[in-house]
Automatic annotation (TrEMBL):
It comes from Candidatus Aphodomorpha intestinavium. This is L,D-transpeptidase family protein. InterPro entries: LD-transpeptidase, LD_TPept_cat_dom, SH3-like_bac-type, Transpep_catalytic_dom. One of its GO terms (biological process) is peptidoglycan-protein cross-linking. The keyword Signal applies. One of its GO terms (molecular function) is transferase activity. GO terms for cellular component: extracellular region. Pathway: Cell wall biogenesis; peptidoglycan biosynthesis. Residues 1-19 form the signal peptide. The keyword Ribosomal protein does not apply.
Amino acid sequence: MKRALACLLCALAVLAALAAPRPAHALDELKNTDPDKYYILLDLRNQIVTVFERDENGEYTRVVRRFLCTTGRTELDPEDPEDQGTPTPTGIWKMGGRERFGKFANFSNEYARYWTQIVGDIYFHSIMFSARDVNTLKRSAFNNIGKNVSHGCVRLYVEDAKWLYYYACPGTTVEVSDSEPSQRALRSALKSTLSFAAYDELQKTFYDEPELPNPTAWITMDGARMRKEGKDSGASVKKLSLGDEVEVLLEGDAWVKVRHEDREGYVKRGYLSMVEGRLDTREDANLIRQTVWLMTEPGGGERIVKVPTDTSVRILETTEDGRYIKIEYWGEVGYLRANAVKQAWGKDVG
């Protein structure tokens, strides 16, 4: 009832005022809008990102770019029996939202340029800064490129993160592998030969066109929590009220990074509306219970892509025995067990 009332009030507000056009989304800045143009391989063993495009046979064999990176920490603390590391999750994923110069909601004084989402709270982004200011590049992050010491995200030199930001549009496939052959020579060749001081001056010259305004969204669940991480267990930043306006910083399938007043964090996609005056979520949306592989056949076949927890999906059909469902996700069509999906508040995908 409260959600319906909020929607009605929002609609009345639109009719009562001369509303400005909705701000352009960061998607408008993309230099590539075809999610099938590139295929990205993230090689955890060698700490190398390779971008492929199709050859004359339609196979992804042509190397477009290669980057050295820093991925999630896998070395465990022998003094801490509960330490599980912070590894970058393996699998095949569909890339999501983007942010030009973002703050880490879970850490103080940590920022990075050119975020592109891999899955959940895992992003490609530049090496870190201590403020939203190009003059605050962190020496330690620069020195650690090529080592697996991050909290799970994939750090890149600024110019490489910038390339992905503009060319790896939402829906681009990224494969995260820990079983690639050793490539020590290539890894060494990709390492910057510049000193930190020289590189720091260089990265300050990487300019962009003025950033487009971020979209606005409206909270549709009274008491919705803004969290430090995009998951239910993330620490609470603040409680939001029905009808609160928030600035959308980065939109993901399940969680949206937002700013409200002077605070930043993540809100469940099902608890806000991205469309002014209209509810674009539903209480019986089909959401993934837990990250699962999308398969080519019911109960088997080949793996297509992983679908993350709490992602809204469209069910196309159910098998006669009721055990499997056929769904669509980022243009991919495949099968899941029927019990892999739950009904809850989520994005209305039809």
